[in-house]
Every structure is written in structure tokens, then in C-alpha cells.
Design brief:
With 974 residues, this protein is mainly α. It has 52 helices and no strands.
Length: 974
């Protein structure tokens, strides 16, 4: 087995696909055999095997322990544990050692402490032996990494018993780990010589050992004690450990800045950051232990020092960007901690009240007005400013610069952390922060427009950025209209190349203060955006203008008449951005604004439709596999169909190929783009005069989507409904079998809400389908009758079912009765039960519907059923009378249904516009016209309810036994 396993691992590293496939099959075949994991460990520990095979063996062993450990024999488990602990410090390759250490951690998660009690005693014994010789030893590093993996794995367990066990274990480990941390800290600080001094040969290994000690201490302190947020129990050990750890950090920080580049390994910086993360996590997990004066005061002073430091202090600067960023995070954790912000009157216990009061007083003393002013000035004036590398990236890669800085940066940067800290200052110390910001604003307002140097421009840009973040808080302190007229309006000038820095931020300032831009000033803003910023050659300015334009168009106070004079310029420049941009994110952003303009301006964009549609094929072809961009293209075309209305037929040569690719459920990108493609197809059908062969063929795509998932049933059902309205009987003759099978499957599987989405399609089919061929729908009718008797169906679903059965009675009364008798005998043994349920739904549930159309269909179907004089119906005439009379009185007025909106009546209660989106403005909707024509030709509409009842009362067709009903029918007839 050993030789075969070794060969399979070596084959898995081959460049041949066939060899890798065979090795995978060999490994799967060897997995169940005894000794599989032991052989993997033997290969990983070999010295003569290739490094790749040994590391792959370690990876496979790690996953194998997670997968097969419970199935192993006791002997093999014991062998693996013993070998791993005995041989781990002798592993020469870091990659193999990492995976074997992780393997030990995963085994310990299952077996410790019950089946592996000797784990930590042996490990600490080995650690003591190796560290006594030297900390700069690979064996010490290996043991520490194993310890780190074990602590991390066990600390992640969440059951109370496991957490208590880890806390007990931590008390045993802290003394030894703390001693190693102190020793390694002294040696690391000593190894960081002044600039130019030669680095120690073992500096890298020493820094890695120190980093591992720091990681272990962080996990032991944070997870090794019960959280004190609710218990208010201050952990006494923190008073000694945390201040000393902070002193270590200060010393290493100072030596790190003064050290030469060669003598400061990356692990030193990572260790410093790990200590800062320890402080941050202590605030979250143990706020009261952290609030002790011995811990919190020096920590806050150190954080303040880091935030207020800057790289422009020359040789005395101790600024380290990563340290500064993390210091800001710790400050934010302290300010947002719910423990320190709780009201004093909530705590009745004197000791707890004293803790809360002491913590709040301590923070109040630290965050004095002077300190807040200094931190705010440094954050805005130093840390939030654009740096030299930002400006270089602006010139070299403008689109990437825009997306990193203006559309949300997923990576934490000094500027993003500074912005978060400023927002936290505004939230926690609003008055003092606003006072400082107003002082800075007055300073930058005094900078001359044309004579400002680069540093002054950067400071002004940063101050405008702060105004964007503080727009809500500065609302009462800044008159934005006066500020625009006196200052901001003059900043939109390209007199110098450097002015672009201010132009970009001034545009974003307009967007942030959009609520304060008065209506009469908006045309001036539109003129700036359309005629100065969008035509600019700088792509960063163009994209910034797109972002600002979107905010103004999407604003509550946007008025189409004001924007209309700038519409042509906006569309022309947006199309240029789409064509000139090389980044797909830029094209997506421009398309997003374009779609919003199409939605808000409606038919006003018709004169420019040809230019918009003409560029679609080229952009679609360049999009390749960029699904997000294709979604925006489909969305834009969907909006364009709504704007063009009936004239959208002219775009079919472009739209149809897009739909054939996008709607196809088996297409390469179907999962990501077909939803937007369905919306586009819905718009095309809404305004189609007839079905082309290509458009008709897409019906099969829609039915496939309906069969595969009900997630998009609302839009799919409306598309199917539109196909029936446009195609009529010919589309059913072509694809009727597929449509009927799909409807049968859907009605059998969907819930009540889904059923109400499908029944409008059945109603149209019954109106256009030959009455003699209704047997093809028998399965659907049987399903509806089955669901009619289900007590769990909602009233809305029952009404829809009854409406379809009433429509069936109007279409072919004989077939309707035949269906009732046949189903009643098969399922109920007697049709009387079914008739009783149907009459109950007809007469009682109809009151839950506010739809006049549905009540009329139900009434006519009931009257026609009464004409059959079926005993089960006639015997219930007393309960039927009230319903008939109420509906008849509702429609007694002449022309009561002449102006009915058939679509709204059928889709009562549904948010139709979510799926049909906007309707064409200024012209009649072709789909609405087709519905109204179908309605005017409907026999239900021709046979008025009142006339039908009056006719039957006069002929004595109703066997009325109640004198009261006779009098009411007489009044109706009069």
C-alpha cells in the first residue's frame, strides 16, 4: 500500500490531466484500507521524497483525519498521535510542518481531553527542553506552531463544557507561554539594531517565534477567561500581563521604526499588530478588565500617540501605517462598546455602578476637547488626504483608482479607517467634532482659488471629504446654498491640472448634500455635470460625474421637466463613457445611470433611441463572460422597450438575438442573466403586434424555467399570459402540449400564492381554446378540483379556482358538469360532496375578493349551473340567493363594467408593476388593448347578470321557497 500511495501522490502532481485523474481514482480506492492515514504520515515524514509529494501527503492526512478519524482502530489512532508528537519538531519543511500541526489540532478537537490526556504535558515538556537551549531554534518554532494550532482549535469550541475546559487549560498554559513571550520580546527588541547596523543571522526565525508566542498569548487571554461584560468580574491577572505586553509593544515599535530594513523581518510588524488586536478583542470580550486604570490609561495614551503621529515629522516620526490603522480600530471598539455606554441608573448593585461610573469618567477624561481636536485635525489633515502613490495611480490607472476609492474599497486602508474614526467621533462627540470641522472649513475657505499649492489642494480635498461624511451632522451649521454660491461653485474649474483633485471631490460633495440643493439651483448643477465634468478627458472625473448624476436623478426632488434640456447631453456623454471605458465596472456604472434615466424620463428619450440601441451589439460582444455587464445591458434594453412602446418592433433585429442567448435555460450564463432576460422578454411581448417565429420559439424556454423552479414563477406566468394574448389560438396549436404539461406540473406543485399566479393564464386559454377540445386540460381541472377541497388553501386561491371553474361552465356547461360528476364519484364517492364544497366557495369565499370581474364570473357560472336543475344545487338555493342578489344589485346600474381594467381585476392584490415595470407614457399599452378586446368579446360580458336573473325569475326557473327571497327578486326585477 505504501508504494502505491506514494506513486499516486507523485502522479497527482503531474501536468497531465489523465495522470491526475488516475491518481485521484487510486487515492479514493486506497482510502478505506487499514493503515491509509499511517502511510500518509510516513510519506510526509520522509526525507528522501520530493517536497511536493510530502506536502500533498500532509494535506491529504489533514483532511483524512477530519473525515475518517472516528472509523480508525484504537491502535492506529495511538500510533498516529505518538508519531505526530515525536516527529513534528524534526520536520524540515515549513509547508509539511504546518499541515501536520493542523492535523494535530483536528485530532485534539475530537480526542482531547478524554482520549489524549497526555497531549499538553508532553508538548510543554518538549517546549521546555527546546526553549531552554535557544529560542532561535527550528524545533522551538515547530512546537510553538503546534501549540498555536491546538489553542486556536480548542478555543473555537462553543459548548459550555468545552469552553470551561479551555479556560481551565489556559490557566495551566499561561505561565509557560508568558515566560517565553517575555524572553522572545527582549531578544527581538535587541535584534532590531539602529539603521545601518547588520541584522542577526537568526533574526527571521526569532521574529517568527515571537509572533507565535504573541498569537498564543492573545488566544489564551481573550478566550481563556469567562467574558466579564455581564458578570462584572475583573480578572486580576490582566493587571500584570496587559501593561507589560503594552510596554513590549512600545519598545518594539520604537526599535522597529529606527531599525534598518534588513533587521526588521515582516513577522515583527505582524507581532505588533497581533498585540493591538489583543487590545481590541479585550475591549469586546472583557471590557471591565480592560477599564482598570493600570490597563486603559496607558493603552489610550499609546493609541492617541499613534493616531496623532504622521510620516511628515522627519527623523523623529514613529509613524507606522498599519499600526496607525489598527490603533484607530481599537479606539472605535472602545467608543462603541455597549458596556461603557450603558446608563448609570440601570445598575442597582453599588459595585457594578462604581465600575460603570469609573469607566465613563476615565473615558470622559481621556477624550478631552483638546485631544479630540488634535485627533480630528490629524485624521482630516493628514490621514485622509490623497498620498503621492494615489495621485500616481490616478494618472496611470484612472478607472482602477476610481473603483478603489469611490465605489467601496474591500481592503482596509489608512484613509478608510480614518473616515470610520471620524464618523465615530461625530456619533459619540458630535458637538466638539463639528466645532473642529468648522474651524478647518474656515481655514480652507481662505485658500486662494488660483494660487493654492498642491498641499493646500490636498487639505481642501480632504476637508470636502469630511463634509461629505458629516453632511447630516453639519446640516444646521452650514448654509449649503450660500456655501455653493461663494465657494463650491468656483471650485469647478480646470484652470490647472492639479485642480482636478478639487473638482472630483466637489462633485461628490454635491451628491452628499443633495437634500440641501434647492430646486432652483438644480439646473446649474445639471449644467456643471453635463457640460463640464462628463465631457472632461479625465476618466476619473467622468466616472465621478456619473456617480453624482445617479444620486441627483434618483433623488426624491428630481423633476423631469428640469432635466429635459440636459437629456441629450447626458445620454451622449454616457454613451461615450460606455464606449471609451476599458474596465467592465466602469461600463456597468454608466449603464446603471443610463437605465435610471430611461426609467425616469420615459418616452422623452425616444429621439435618442437609435443611438442607444446601435451601440448595444458592440458592447455585448466585448462583454464576453462579464455577466454583470450583460445584466445591465438587458436591463437597459428592457427600459428602452418600455420607453419606445409599440415602436419597439424596430429594435427586434438586436433584441431577439440577445433574448435567444439569455433566456435559454441551458445557456452558459443562464444562471446569472436569465432573470433580467425574462423582464426584457416580458416588455417585448407587452408591445408586440404579432409573434415572429423566433419570438414564438422562446415560449419553450419559458416553460422550461417554470418546470425547473418556482423562484421566478411570477414573471414566467405573466410572460406565458402575454404569449396567450399575442399569439392566441395559433400559439396553442403550435406548443399547446408543452404549455398544458407545464401548467399541470405547476398547479400540482405550487402553494396557494403560486396558484393565483397561474390561473390568469388558464382563464385566457379557456377564452381562446376550442370548447370541443377541453379534454386536453382534464388533468389541470382535476388538480383544481382536488385543491378546491383542501381546507389549507387560502381564500384567494379558492376564489381563483372557482373563477376558472365558472369560466369552464361558461365555455362548455355540459363538459363542466361531466367533470364534476366524474371527479366527485372517483374521489368523493358522491358528487354531492363536491357540489356542496363548490357552492360554499362560490357563495361564501367570493366576499373576500374586491374584484368586480371575479364576482361577475362566479355569479354567471352559478346561474348557468342552476339552469341544469341539479338536485345538489337546487337544494341549496337559500344560501345561493343572497349571493346572486348582492352581485345583481352591484351590476344593476347601466354600463357598470364597461370601463373595467381586466388586468388589474385579475391580478388583484399583486404588485404587477414589479414584473411589468413601467408602462409606456403617452400612448396606449398594446397589451391592455388586447385584454380589453378579449373582454368585450367575452360571453360573460355580453350576458348581463341582472338580465339573466330577471329572465329566470320571470320564467319561474328558480324554485324559491322563501317568501322574502321572492320579494327581493321582485324588487330587483323592478
Amino acid at each position: 500500500m505504501f508504494a502505491g500511495l506514494k506513486g499516486a501522490l507523485q502522479a497527482a502532481l503531474s501536468t497531465s490531466d489523465e495522470a491526475r485523474k488516475q491518481s485521484q481514482q487510486m487515492l479514493q480506492a486506497l482510502e478505506p484500507q487499514p493503515g491509509y492515514l499511517s502511510s500518509l504520515l510516513q510519506i510526509a515524514l520522509e526525507t528522501d521524497s520530493s517536497g511536493g509529494a510530502r506536502e500533498l501527503a500532509g494535506i491529504t492526512l489533514k483532511h483524512g483525519c477530519s473525515k475518517f478519524w472516528k472509523d480508525l482502530s484504537g491502535e492506529e489512532k495511538a500510533h498516529l498521535k505518538s508519531e505526530l508528537l515525536d516527529k513534528i519538531e524534526a520536520v524540515s519543511t515549513d509547508g509539511v510542518a504546518v499541515h501536520l500541526s493542523l492535523c494535530i489540532g483536528r485530532i485534539a478537537r475530537t480526542d482531547f481531553p478524554g482520549q489524549w490526556q497526555e497531549l499538553f504535558p508532553r508538548l510543554m515538556q518538549k517546549l521546555g527542553q527546546t526553549s531552554n537551549n535557544s529560542l532561535c531554534d527550528v524545533a522551538t518554532k515547530r512546537i510553538l506552531y503546534v501549540l498555536h494550532c491546538l489553542i486556536k482549535e480548542l478555543a473555537s469550541k462553543r459548548l459550555p463544557v468545552a469552553r470551561k475546559g479551555f479556560q481551565e487549560l489556559s490557566q495551566q498554559l499561561i505561565p509557560a507561554v508568558w515566560g517565553l513571550f517575555c524572553r522572545s520580546s527582549e531578544q527581538v527588541a535587541a535584534s532590531l539594531g539602529p539603521g545601518g547596523a547588520p541584522a542577526r543571522p537568526d533574526a527571521l526565525l526569532l521574529a517568527q517565534v515571537w509572533l507565535l508566542c504573541t498569537k498564543c498569548m492573545k488566544r489564551l487571554l481573550v478566550s481563556g477567561f469567562p467574558p466579564d461584560a455581564k458578570s462584572f468580574e475583573v480578572h486580576s491577572q490582566f493587571k500584570e500581563i496587559v501593561p507589560q505586553t503594552l510596554e513590549v509593544l512600545k519598545v518594539v515599535h520604537q526599535r522597529y521604526v529606527g531599525a534598518s530594513a534588513a533587521s526588521a523581518p515582516p513577522a515583527v510588524l505582524r507581532g505588533m499588530l497581533k498585540i493591538l488586536k489583543l487590545l481590541r478583542d479585550l475591549v469586546d470580550s472583557h471590557p471591565w478588565s480592560f477599564s482598570v486604570v493600570e490597563i486603559s490609561v496607558p493603552t489610550l495614551e499609546y493609541l492617541y500617540f499613534n493616531v496623532c503621529s504622521s510620516p511628515d515629522q522627519g527623523v523623529t516620526s514613529l509613524f507606522v501605517e498599519d499600526v496607525c490603522m489598527l490603533s484607530m480600530q481599537v479606539l472605535q471598539s472602545i467608543m462603541r462598546s455597549p458596556a461603557y455606554r450603558s446608563p448609570l441608573d440601570r445598575e442597582a448593585d453599588p459595585s457594578r455602578r462604581q465600575l460603570v461610573e469609573g469607566a465613563q469618567q476615565l473615558l470622559s477624561n481621556f477624550f478631552s476637547a483638546e485631544r479630540l481636536d488634535q485627533m480630528t485635525c490629524t485624521v482630516v489633515g493628514v490621514h485622509m488626504t490623497l498620498k503621492a502613490y494615489d495621485l500616481e495611480k490616478w494618472q496611470a490607472e484612472p478607472e482602477e483608482f476610481h473603483h478603489e476609492n469611490d465605489l467601496g474599497n474591500f481592503n482596509e486602508t489608512l484613509r478608510s479607517e480614518s473616515e470610520k474614526l471620524l464618523c465615530k467621533f461625530l456619533e459619540t462627540f458630535k458637538g466638539q467634532t463639528i466645532s473642529t470641522l468648522m474651524k478647518l472649513l474656515n481655514q480652507v475657505q481662505g485658500v486662494p482659488q488660483g494660487g493654492a499649492d498642491l498641499q493646500q489642494l490636498l487639505l481642501k480635498e480632504s476637508m470636502y471629504n469630511a463634509m461629505c461624511l458629516a453632511a447630516y451632522d453639519l446640516h444646521d451649521s452650514v448654509n449649503f446654498k450660500m456655501f455653493f454660491e461663494s465657494q463650491l461653485g468656483n471650485d469647478f474649474s480646470f484652470q490647472r491640472e492639479e485642480n482636478k483633485i478639487i473638482v472630483r471631490r466637489a462633485a461628490y460633495l454635491l451628491a452628499a448634500w443633495v437634500a440641501d440643493v434647492p430646486e432652483e439651483m438644480r439646473p446649474q448643477v445639471y449644467n456643471l455635470l453635463m457640460n463640464q465634468l462628463l465631457p472632461c478627458e479625465d476618466m476619473v472625473i467622468k466616472l465621478a460625474a456619473c456617480a453624482v448624476m445617479r444620486v441627483f436623478i434618483d433623488d426624491w426632488n428630481f423633476y423631469e421637466e428640469q432635466f429635459h434640456p440636459f437629456l441629450h447631453s447626458a445620454l451622449r456623454n454616457l454613451l461615450l463613457v460606455i464606449q471609451q471605458a476599458y474596465d467592465f465596472d466602469s461600463q456597468v456604472q454608466a449603464f446603471n445611470v443610463l437605465c435610471l434615466i430611461l426609467e425616469r424620463m420615459g418616452t422623452r428619450v425616444k429621439p435618442f433611441a437609435n443611438d442607444i440601441v446601435a451601440m448595444i451589439p458592440d458592447v455585448w460582444q466585448k462583454a464576453q463572460d462579464q455577466s454583470l455587464l450583460k445584466i445591465q445591458i438587458l436591463n437597459a434594453m428592457h427600459r428602452m422597450m418600455q420607453c419606445l412602446g409599440a415602436s419597439s418592433v424596430a429594435t427586434y433585429n438586436i433584441v431577439i438575438p440577445l433574448l435567444q442567448y439569455s433566456v435559454n435555460p441551458d445557456g452558459l450564463e443562464s444562471v446569472s442573466i436569465f432573470e433580467d432576460a425574462l423582464l426584457l422578454l416580458r416588455s417585448v411581448l407587452q408591445f408586440a403586434a404579432e409573434l415572429s417565429p423566433q419570438l414564438a420559439g422562446m415560449l419553450l424556454f419559458v416553460t422550461t424555467h417554470m418546470q425547473r423552479s418556482t423562484e421566478y414563477l411570477p414573471i414566467s406566468a405573466k410572460i406565458l399570459e402575454a404569449y396567450m394574448l399575442v399569439g392566441g389560438l395559433p400559439i396553442l396549436q403550435m406548443h399547446g402540449a408543452t404549455v398544458f404539461n407545464t401548467l399541470l406540473e405547476v398547479t400540482n406543485s405550487v402553494n396557494s400564492r403560486g396558484l393565483t399566479m397561474v390561473t390568469p393564464v388558464l382563464d385566457i386559454i379557456l377564452q381562446i381554446f376550442p370548447p370541443t377540445d377541453l379534454a386536453l386540460l382534464e388533468g389541470i381541472f382535476f388538480t383544481l378540483l382536488n385543491r378546491l377541497g383542501d381546507e389549507s388553501e387560502t381564500d384567494e386561491a379558492l376564489i381563483h379556482i372557482a373563477c376558472i371553474l365558472s369560466r369552464l361552465a361558461v365555455t362548455n356547461l355540459a363538459y363542466f358538469l361531466e367533470m364534476l360528476v366524474k371527479y366527485g364519484k372517483e374521489r368523493c364517492g358522491n358528487e354531492d360532496v363536491l357540489f356542496d364544497r363548490l357552492v360554499y366557495v362560490w357563495t361564501e369565499k367570493a366576499y373576500a375578493s374586491s374584484s368586480s370581474l371575479k364576482r361577475k364570473i362566479l355569479c354567471v357560472g352559478l346561474i348557468l349551473t342552476l339552469d341544469t336543475k341539479h338536485p345538489s344545487i337546487i337544494s341549496r338555493m337559500d344560501c345561493i340567493g343572497d349571493f346572486l342578489l348582492e352581485v345583481a344589485n352591484e351590476f344593476k346600474l347601466p354600463n357598470s363594467l364597461d370601463n373595467i381594467n381586466v388586468a388589474e381585476e385579475w391580478h388583484e392584490g399583486e404588485d404587477v408593476d414589479d414584473y411589468a415595470c413601467i408602462h409606456s407614457q403617452g400612448e396606449e399599452d398594446p397589451e391592455a388593448v388586447r385584454r380589453s378586446r378579449l373582454w368585450s368579446a367575452d360571453p360573460v360580458n355580453k350576458a348581463q347578470v341582472v338580465g339573466m336573473i330577471q329572465e329566470r325569475v320571470a320564467s319561474g326557473a328558480f324554485p324559491l321557497n322563501n317568501d322574502e327571497f321572492k320579494e327581493r327578486f321582485k324588487l330587483l326585477s323592478s
